[in-house]
Specification:
Length: about 180
């Protein structure tokens, strides 16, 4: 049996298993039948990170592509990302030839604290004393004027009216 066909069968079986295992898991996301994301840690956890695993055509005989380039990971230092990816690649080498996406996600979950131990926790500090220069005193509780919200019908009428005005102006220009 050709290698690509065997790989595709392995991928189909792994895809079914992943869908079954992670059904209802908010941390798991299937981007495509060959690309998956898993959030390690809860939302709001400063040490949470996102791993993306994509399968090349010959996976699992060849290594999957593992990425941490998601926007979610922007606060993580590149050194920490590189360290996590290096550790995951050791797991990839150990599991080459077998379905490993679940294994990689679970390995990352089990080692989250170790992976992120050197990542500084970004805390948001707010400045309570703000100074404004050259602005008039405006009461803090004054509400801004809200822009009037139009209904769909009102928007259609406005669009139709605008369209009619444009057509009339064009007709007048042609008559001159």
């Amino acid at each position: 049996m050709p290698r690509a066909m065997a790989a595709n069968e392995d991928q189909e079986m792994e895809l079914e298993a992943l869908r079954s295992i992670y059904e209802g898991d908010g941390c798991f996301r299937e981007l495509s039948p060959v690309s998956f994301q898993y959030r390690i840690g809860e939302n709001g956890d400063p040490k949470a990170f996102l791993i993306e695993v994509s399968w090349p055509e010959t996976y699992p005989q060849t290594a999957p592509v593992i990425s941490m380039d998601a926007f979610f990971n922007n606060t993580i230092s590149s050194a920490i990302k590189r360290s996590i990816l290096d550790k995951l690649m050791v797991e990839v080498e150990a599991n080459l030839g077998t379905a490993m996406t679940y294994t990689l996600f679970e390995y990352a979950k089990d080692n989250k604290e170790l992976f992120m131990e050197n990542q500084p926790v970004n805390t948001v500090t707010s400045v309570s004393n703000s100074i404004a220069i050259g602005t008039p005193d405006v009461p803090a509780n004054k509400k801004k004027d809200k822009k009037e919200q139009l209904s769909k019908t009102q928007k259609r009428k406005l669009a139709d009216k605008t369209e009619i005005d444009v057509v009339q102006k064009m007709e007048m220009a042609v008559r001159k």
